[in-house]
Specification:
The chain is an alpha+beta fold. It has 2 domains: about 100 residues, Orthogonal Bundle (Topoisomerase I, Chain A, domain 4), CATH 1.10.132.20; about 70 residues, Gyrase A, domain 2. Helices cover about 60% and strands about 15% of the residues. The strands form 2 sheets. Strands 3-4-6-5 form a 4-stranded antiparallel sheet. A hairpin with a 2-residue loop joins strand 5 and strand 6. The longest helix is centred in the last third of the chain and has 38 residues. GO terms for molecular function: ribosomal large subunit binding.
Length: about 190
């Protein structure tokens, strides 16, 4: 494996880490309704567990209410039960075929707890990025050890790897700050 391949591989893996972090952030509840909040909830559909989005239409009624329109009549009760049993603290209300999921108003204390959760997720993402940096640097050192690259190339590539790492860690910091601001907005 050449140094260019190592750098390209590193870039794509770090981009994947950022994407996974962004996906984790969408699951953290702010005061506003977001259909992505329900993505992690699985519903029993004829013996197999499926995400709610595969058995119903999800949409927003207003900024604080998610509406769920099941595709089959019998699914409403199962969807309601799955939402109630989830750890999201939501209380759905059925209105005929339509299920309304109002977002409860968050207290200041709960907002502070969620910002701590966001920071923890951010730290996990940074650790993953730093681990990728370490692996890339070790791969470059192995090339030098095997006499496939010079020490000058090693120094240059380590500097490039550090630049890529710093950029991605900055991205994580920006995402954390934006999510914290979103949570603390009343």
């Amino acid at each position: 494996m050449a140094i260019d391949e190592i750098k390209t591989n590193l870039q794509s893996k770090m981009d994947q880490s950022i994407a996974a972090f962004q996906n984790n952030l969408t699951k953290i509840r702010t005061g506003r309704a977001n259909p992505a909040l329900l993505d992690s909830i699985q519903v029993d559909y004829y013996g197999s567990m499926l995400p709610i989005s595969q058995v119903a239409n999800l949409s927003l009624l207003d900024s604080r209410t998610i509406s769920i329109q099941p595709w089959e009549k019998g699914m409403g009760a199962k969807i309601e039960k799955a939402i109630r049993e989830s750890d999201l603290g939501l209380n759905p209300a059925s209105m005929g075929d339509l299920i309304r999921v109002p977002m409860p108003i968050m207290t200041e204390e709960r907002r502070r707890e969620l910002t701590k959760v966001v920071r923890g997720e951010g730290e996990n993402a940074k650790v993953a990025i730093r681990n990728l940096r370490r692996d890339a640097n070790e791969a470059v050192k192995k090339l030098v050890k095997d006499k496939l690259a010079s020490e000058d190339e090693q120094k240059r590539s380590e500097a490039d790897i550090q630049k890529v790492t710093d950029k991605h860690i900055g991205d994580v910091d920006r995402l954390v700050a934006a999510k914290e601001q979103d949570i603390m907005a009343v």
